[in-house]
Amino acid sequence: MSRSRQGSRGFAYLGVLFAIVILGFALATAGTLWSVSARRDREALLLWTGGQYQRAIASYYLKGPGGVRQFPPSLEDLLEDRRGPVLLRHLRRLYPDPMTGSADWNLERLADGSIQGVRSTGQGRPIKQAGFRPEQAAFEGAECYCDWVFVYVPPRGPAAGTGSVAL
């Protein structure tokens, strides 16, 4: 073989290696972007799911038979509320925690053991740090998904008897 042919093969080999390195960087960047996008989607789903539980707990509390206001003793009671003559469904199904993928919610309980809200067991730091809806303003600057607490607090004062939902 001539020397010029060997030199061109070495140059082609370096070109292929350079192309592989560029492709590796591009794939790593795409993977990072996909990961961040997937996490943002799970955060949005957590906000929606937590809101569903919060509204269901509010509905359970406000629709007690005979005007009796009480919080549910378990999440399953949100699916089938048998306190009155008519079966009420405050929640379509028990949703899993989007950050963990399982139904391992931390429950916010009152002194009597009834459930006032839920919070994620996810330990990651949220990407979303600001721009929440007014009822979720407490989530701003949270250090952990477990700091996002979806709790129903009944209104106090004269408006408490009107049946309004303050979330």
Low-confidence stretches: 161-166
Q: Which strand order do you get reading across the main beta sheet?
A: 1-2-3
Order of helices and strands: HEEE
Please, how many domains?
1
**In this structure, how is the largest beta sheet organized?**
3 strands, antiparallel
Please give the count of helices: 1
Structural class: mainly alpha
Question: How does this model look, in words?
Answer:
- By secondary structure, the protein is mainly alpha-helical.
- The protein contains 1 helix and 3 strands; from the N terminus they run H-E-E-E.
- The chain has one helix at 3-62; strands at 106-109, 115-119, 149-151.
- It has a 3-stranded antiparallel beta sheet with strand order 1-2-3.
- Mean pLDDT is 86; it is low at 161-166.
Descriptive labels:
disordered C terminus
Topology:
Layout: H1 3-62, E1 106-109, E2 115-119, E3 149-151
Antiparallel strand pairs: 1-2, 2-3
In short:
By secondary structure, the protein is mainly alpha-helical. Helices cover 36% and strands 7% of the residues.
